[in-house]
């Protein structure tokens, strides 16, 4: 069965008109997705815009890893921030607006099944997920476009590595037109690329202790059950938000026991002496 046939089959089973938005296009700005992180939601005036594209730039490898690898290996050695992204997908699936499917596009953004199940073994997110193993940027863009247009899909998560401005503009326009949320995971060096995304986020390893030790990608796995991974999360851009003199940085920690990701107040800010600012205000729309 082809991908288009699979999506049509899902549409027939779950694509009920009642789960789509009933609001007119001009009112779509009031539909937001709360991240569940109070400080971040306050800075965003409630959360992420639903009918939009949001980019998440992944974690760079440790300095030791980079020094020991050849250039070609180094270029591909990045980790998509799947734990924070899965947290957002779970938040969306718990919202009444998202009684639909989540489509994961590209093997790099496929999360472990255990992460989708959570600490309590709740299989609803896994059951409502569709995984598409598209490889090249052109294939991933085509599948993302197709999924965003489907009335059975509420959320699209895709590997956006290699996407240019035209590709992100296409995704943003389709997401807005079909009232669907798109999340792209991208390598950290692509922050320099122009993008039409509503928000852009950079995730980095956070220092675990005063000694300044930063874990390497290989240290964060299922064997490290006693280690709660920590990251610094920086908001690089948010359309409609006034620029602030202080970098917008928060610290996140994954509690493995509870299976939740929360804002941590004990992790040093990796960006330097910057402190979290929650007094951001949205520009008034003309």
Structure class: alpha/beta
Percent helix among the residues?
25-40%
Biggest beta sheet attributes: 9 strands, mixed
Which whole number gives the mean pLDDT? Answer: 75
Q: What is the number of helical segments per DSSP (H or I, 4+ residues)? A: 9
Number of strands: 11
Strand content: 15-25%
Envelope shape: globular
Can you write the helix and strand succession as a string? HEHEEHHHEHHEHEHEEEEE
Detailed description of the structure:
- The chain has 286 residues and is of the alpha/beta class.
- The chain contains nine helices and eleven strands.
- The strands form two sheets. It has a nine-stranded mixed sheet with strand order 5-4-6-7-3-8-9-10-11, sandwiched between helices. It has a two-stranded antiparallel sheet with strand order 1-2.
- A hairpin with a 4-residue loop joins strand 10 (249-255) and strand 11 (260-263).
- Helix 8 packs parallel to helix 9.
- The chain is globular and about 45 Å long.
- The chain starts with a helix and ends in a 23-residue tail after the last strand.
- Residues 14-29, 64-70, 209-226 and 266-286 have low confidence and may be disordered.
């Amino acid at each position: 069965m082809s991908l288009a046939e699979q999506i049509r089959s899902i549409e027939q089973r779950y694509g009920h008109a009642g789960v789509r938005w009933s609001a007119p296009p001009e009112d779509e700005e009031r539909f937001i997705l709360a991240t569940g992180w109070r400080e971040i939601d306050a800075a965003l005036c409630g959360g992420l815009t639903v009918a939009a594209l949001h980019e998440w730039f992944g974690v760079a490898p440790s300095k030791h890893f980079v020094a020991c690898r050849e250039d070609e290996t180094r270029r591909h050695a990045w980790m998509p921030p799947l734990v924070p992204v899965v947290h957002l997908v779970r938040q969306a699936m718990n919202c009444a607006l998202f009684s639909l499917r989540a489509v994961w596009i590209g093997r790099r953004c496929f999360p472990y099944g255990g992460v989708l199940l959570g600490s309590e073994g709740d299989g609803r997110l896994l059951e409502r997920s569709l995984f598409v193993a598209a490889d090249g940027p052109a294939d991933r863009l085509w599948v993302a476009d197709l999924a965003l247009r489907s009335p059975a899909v509420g959320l699209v998560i895709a590997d956006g590595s290699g996407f240019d401005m035209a590709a992100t503009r296409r995704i943003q326009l389709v997401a807005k037109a079909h009232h669907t949320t798109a999340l792209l995971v991208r390598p950290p060096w692509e922050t320099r690329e122009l993008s039409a995304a509503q928000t852009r986020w950079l995730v980095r390893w956070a220092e675990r202790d005063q000694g300044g030790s930063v874990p390497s990608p290989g240290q964060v796995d299922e064997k490290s059950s006693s280690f709660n991974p920590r990251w610094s999360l920086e908001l690089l851009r948010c359309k409609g938000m006034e620029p602030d003199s202080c970098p917008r940085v928060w610290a996140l920690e994954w509690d493995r026991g509870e299976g939740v990701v929360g804002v941590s107040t004990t992790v040093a800010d990796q960006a330097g002496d910057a402190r979290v600012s929650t007094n951001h205000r949205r520009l008034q729309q003309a």
